[in-house]
Design a protein that fits this description.
The complex is a heterodimer of chains A (218) and B (140). Chain A is an alpha+beta fold and 218 residues long. Helices cover 17% and strands 41% of the residues of chain A. Chain A contains four helices and 14 strands. Chain A is globular and about 60 Å long. In chain B, helix 1 runs antiparallel to helix 2. Chain B contains two helices and eight strands, in the order E-E-E-H-E-E-E-E-H-E. Chain B has a domain of 90 residues: Ribosomal protein L16/L10 (Aldehyde Oxidoreductase, domain 3), CATH 3.90.1170.10. Chain B has 140 residues and is of the alpha+beta class. The chains are: A alpha+beta (218), B alpha+beta (140). At the A-B interface, strand 5, strand 7, strand 8 and strand 14 of A face strand 1 of B. Strand 14 of chain A pairs parallel with strand 1 of chain B.
Amino acid sequence: MEIQTLQAEPRTPHGSRAAQRLRRRGKVPAVIYGHQQAPETILVDQHALVGCLEDGAHVVTIALDGKTETCLLKDVQYDHLGIAPLHVDFARIDLTEKVRVRVALELRGTAKGQSEGGIVIQQLMDLDIECLATAIPDSIRVPINDLALDQILHVRELVLPEGVRAVADPEAIVAICREPHVQAAPTEAPAEAAAATEPEVIARGKIEEEGEAEGEKS
Amino acid sequence: MAMMPARVKFRKQQRGKMKGNATRGNYVSYGDYGLQSLEAGWVTGRQIEAGRVATTHFLRREGRVIVRIFPHKSVSGKPLEVRMGTGKGEPEFWTAVVKPGTILFEVGGVSEDIARAALQRVAHKMPVRCRFVKRRHVVG
């Protein structure tokens, strides 16, 4: 994927109120750190940033004060609705170095177990991988055609692209094919359950016992 | 039967405030698609159960339905034609306190069109305005 360039400006007024003013102007506060250099607080254009995020970019070039730096999109904070980015972390990287990133796992195909009445449940949605910064895959496609009923697909069984190594727990479960849970037909409800229209109060028994004890004393 | 806690320390609660936005439980965690609240409000145990039944019925037991909220709060009320005073009323129902951004329901294992149609049915049963959201893959 082609590395996109984000125009950035240095951010001088710091603090939450200054950041709010910037966001109202269509800018997003951000920070660049890493490679044992001093962190720099910057601001980037919200529209350009959202474009990068929608394209699924992991590595971007930050143009700041006439110089450019290659950075990894390390973290993005969103608002409460998950629509607008509030703050972005960029980590300085070298294009020849290996980086650790999280990419999406996509299950492809129809599992063998599905024809036998099973359903496929994806347990792991993203995978932590280590690879060259120039070779970060958009997503990892996992063919599940051979997944039989009651079979589990682990991280260690994944076939990853060349140069990509999984750093997640090899025993972690990616997907499982199992029979759907069928709700048991309602049998005769016990009398207690039928009468339970209110939850049990934890402290009630203790208070009653104490009250009785006090009554006996007097 | 409407959802309610199994055990509580106190039967009656004060009404409380619903200020601010959701800072947790505000993104799709378990399924692929979700229903997000756009307003603050109380969602009763009956409404949650109605939503769950509507989705499960529409999906015909395909895929997975995850309910992300639970009615932890009791709401008390006085019976009709009773004079004010003589103490707080008895608990009438249980509600979940929902803030803007809270994910109410999630659906997984089905296509987007089916999930959208299923969650649309749930949205009609909710007392708050809702929107359909997709899982966002984590950056970094």
